[in-house]
């Protein structure tokens, strides 16, 4: 038996699974302070004993190789937490730590849309844009665990800010990026003396988010459609780079892409056909993630199974 731990900004989930990854027990609780949360995790793990491996999925930055949580922005107070050492010393079993993008990549590769492939990329496409890379059947982390930060790549000199950089991939292709695009376009309309059905004045700009834009785009609103067009085209440019450099079999995209594929894919495909090298493009499928809302639990389990199978805590 194995334990999976999904640490998020608002909740933590601890699950017990068998060696095939089938989850049998699950405990969820609100994320509190660092010490309170880890103490609760330990209490749940005690009730799950015995088990022989533990996997942790957590937002970065992390030191995956040494099992340290390094002050994630969504986990204030979780500073230099040597969580793997703590749990290993308490339970006497190996503990493996991965950032949530890498963990979800493992999950979709083992159990989801990327199952059966050797070379796969997973893109989060949620609030932000992170990536996990599988090469030759192994998770690839790079020299210091920073591989896959496609969200930081700048696509344009000007544009919505994502990942601390104006015009970055995350600035155009994420929940926060789509909200930024929507606000920019709405501001232009308001300055032209026009109003939108979902934004009748400057005081309503902060209400705009990706979900609202999708709802109005599906109703045919031109401004909302324009936001998703820009997003789709920029996603196509981003995927073209990944396809040309890494030559994957599949790119699996989660969250917003799953919910708004119809608004994004046509513009994405148009740019892919124009920009990506034909041989690499022809062997690469772009698929929505398959694991849905359960991906966090499955990701943590996949981290444990992958770490145990490879008998180390590295992804390099």
Radius of gyration, in Å, reads: 20 Å
Task: Report how far apart the termini are.
Answer: 26 Å
How does the overall form come out from the CA principal axes? globular
Query: What is the residue-averaged pLDDT?
Result: 93
Order of helices and strands: EEEHEEEHEHEEEEEHHHHEHHHEH
Helix content: 40-55%
Structural classification:
alpha/beta
Main sheet characteristics: 5 strands, mixed
Strand fraction: 15-25%
- State the helix count: 11
Quantity of strands, as a count = 14
Strand order of the largest sheet: 3-2-1-4-7
Low-confidence stretches: none
Can you walk me through this structure?
- Helix content is 41%, strand content 19%.
- The chain has 316 residues and is α/β, with parallel strands linked by helices.
- The strands form four sheets. The chain has a five-stranded mixed beta sheet.
- A hairpin with a 5-residue loop joins strand 2 and strand 3 (23-30).
- Helix 5 (175-191) packs antiparallel against helix 7 and helix 6 packs across helix 7.
- The chain is globular and about 65 Å long.
Task: Give descriptors for this structure.
single chain; 5-stranded mixed β-sheet; globular; 316 residues
In short:
The chain is α/β, with parallel strands linked by helices and 316 residues long. It is 41% helix and 19% strand. Helix 5 runs antiparallel to helix 7.
Sequence-ordered SSE layout with sheet pairings:
Blueprint: E1 2-7, E2 11-17, E3 23-30, H1 34-48, E4 54-58, E5 62-63, E6 68-69, H2 83-91, E7 95-99, H3 100-111, E8 120-123, E9 131-135, E10 138-140, E11 161-162, E12 165-166, H4 169-172, H5 175-191, H6 210-218, H7 222-246, E13 250-253, H8 256-259, H9 261-275, H10 278-282, E14 285-288, H11 295-310
Parallel strand pairs: 1-4, 4-7, 8-13, 13-14
Antiparallel strand pairs: 1-2, 2-3, 5-6, 8-9, 9-10, 11-12
């Amino acid at each position: 038996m194995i334990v999976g731990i999904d640490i998020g900004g608002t909740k933590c989930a601890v699950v017990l699974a068998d060696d095939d990854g089938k989850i049998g027990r699950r405990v969820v609780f609100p994320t509190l302070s660092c010490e309170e949360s880890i103490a609760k995790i330990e209490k749940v793990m005690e009730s799950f004993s015995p088990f022989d491996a533990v996997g942790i999925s957590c937002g970065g930055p992390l030191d995956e190789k040494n099992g340290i949580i390094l002050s994630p922005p969504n986990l204030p107070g979780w500073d230099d937490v040597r969580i793997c050492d703590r749990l290993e010393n308490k339970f006497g079993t190996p503990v493996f730590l991965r950032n949530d993008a890498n963990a979800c990549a493992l999950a979709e590769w083992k159990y989801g849309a990327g199952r059966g492939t050797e070379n796969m990329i997973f893109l989060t496409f949620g609030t932000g844009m992170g990536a996990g890379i599988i090469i030759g059947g192994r998770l690839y982390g790079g020299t210091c665990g920073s591989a896959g930060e496609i969200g930081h790549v700048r696509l344009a000199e000007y544009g919505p800010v994502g990942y601390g950089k104006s015009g970055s991939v995350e600035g155009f292709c994420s929940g926060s990026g789509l909200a930024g695009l929507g606000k920019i376009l709405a501001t232009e309309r308001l300055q032209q003396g026009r109003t939108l059905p979902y934004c009748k004045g400057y005081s309503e700009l902060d209400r705009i988010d990706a979900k609202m834009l999708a709802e109005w785009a599906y109703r045919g609103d031109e401004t909302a459609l324009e936001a998703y067009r820009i997003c789709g085209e920029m996603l196509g440019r981003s995927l073209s780079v990944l396809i040309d450099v890494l030559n994957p079999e599949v790119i699996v995209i989660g969250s917003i892409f799953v919910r708004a594929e119809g608004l994004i894919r046509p513009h994405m495909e148009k740019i892919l056909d124009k920009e990506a090298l034909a041989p690499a493009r022809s062997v690469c499928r772009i698929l929505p993630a398959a694991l849905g809302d359960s991906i966090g639990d499955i990701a943590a389990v996949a981290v444990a199974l992958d770490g145990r199978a490879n008998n180390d805590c590295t992804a390099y």
